[in-house]
Design goal:
Elements (H helix, E strand, L loop, with lengths): L2 E6 L3 H12 L4 E7 L2 H11 L3 E5 L7 H11 L4 E6 L5 H9 L3 E4 L4 H12 L7 H15 L15 H11 L4 H8 L3 H15 L4 H10 L11 H6 L12
Parallel strand pairs: 1-2, 1-3, 3-4, 4-5
């Protein structure tokens, strides 16, 4: 099965480099290229690629807004965000906009190819543990202080909600099965139903949903801002001991 790609980046040389890497793979096909977010959203509607490789910093419409529009208008296309750093606010905003994963721009080609194939197969390109670390860091800064209860929660059974919470905490299916004393196949079935009922794409979106709906709150909601910006304490002098 061929995976059709759309490359969205304002640097033509970088798009060329990506194309060379992808065209050397028998199961990948570059369907098109876009130089800004608006063009990426339009081409996604036209070409219906399986995966959109999305830069976040582009002129005009940025990659975050383009991701939001692609998820809304081209739901079959999955977005893989490229960031400067692996845990930054752009990665957070991309996941919140509906991206299926993120990677730093200096990712090795082999890891990038693996992530593309994972996203195309319906998996997240970032583990729930990494997603949770990201939300713990940036959710207190960029999310509303009091999340609203999502009405879709009423669609879940108590067991499905429990599985959702465990997955959102970063546990694998095997770890959830051990914690809840269930068969791993049963956990997979519950998770599939959760994704279907809530209209979520993958495990990364489960984590985002759990935070946005208030099922999980950041570990340090009151001092997260201070943790990020507080200057280091000077060492205590020997006289003060």
């Amino acid at each position: 099965m061929t995976i059709r790609l759309l490359i969205a980046d304002d640097e033509s040389l970088l798009r060329m480099a990506f194309r060379m890497v992808f065209e050397a793979e028998p199961d990948l096909e570059v369907a098109g290229e876009a130089g800004d977010g608006d063009e990426a959203a339009r081409m996604a509607r036209l070409l219906r690629p399986d995966v959109v490789l999305m830069d976040v910093r582009m002129p005009g419409m940025d990659g975050i807004e383009a991701t939001r529009r692609i998820v809304r208008d081209s739901p079959r296309s999955r977005v893989l965000i490229l960031t400067t750093f692996d845990l930054d606010e752009y990665a957070f905003a991309g996941l919140k906009a509906g991206a299926s994963g993120f990677l730093p721009k200096n990712t090795r080609p082999g890891d990038l190819l693996a992530a593309i194939r994972s996203v195309a197969a319906g998996e997240a390109a970032v583990s729930p543990r990494i997603t949770r670390r990201l939300l713990e860091k940036f959710a207190p800064l960029l999310m509303p202080g009091v999340p609203e209860r999502d009405r879709r929660l009423a669609l879940l059974t108590s067991r499905e909600r429990e599985v959702l919470v465990q997955v959102a905490r970063g546990l694998s299916n095997a770890e959830v099965a051990a914690a809840m004393r269930l068969a791993e196949a049963t956990v997979k079935t519950h998770l599939s139903r959760v994704l279907l009922k809530l209209g979520l794409r993958d495990r990364a979106q489960v984590v985002v949903f759990a935070y946005e709906s208030g099922l999980i709150r950041p570990a340090t909601p009151h001092d997260a801002r201070d943790v990020r910006f507080r200057p280091p304490r000077p060492p205590r002098s020997s006289e003060s001991r």
